[in-house]
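Standup notes
- DV: blocked on the single-chain target, sequence here:
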Amino acid sequence: MASNDNQNNNGKMSREEAGRLGGEATSNNHDKEFYQEIGQKGGEATSASHDKEFYQEIGSEGGKARGGSDSDDNDGKMSREEAGRKGGQARKND
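- DV (later): unblocked, structure below
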């Protein structure tokens, strides 16, 4: 009989499975406002504990992660940079 990938050797739930089930339970017990509130609190805490350079660094890293290409990604979505440029060109032509 094949073993369940979400169970470890002694039959207990794996960390992955426990996390997934916990996340689902939290999602079922809370609404949009709950997530907005904890996001706001987290943002305020991060802002209080980090300086301008931190945000510059993570912004730069985020830009690198998105890639610098102007072509469509494999998922068919246009980059924000390309969308902005095309939107600007369309306004010029109006």
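- Follow-up: Residues 32-49 form the longest helix (18 residues).
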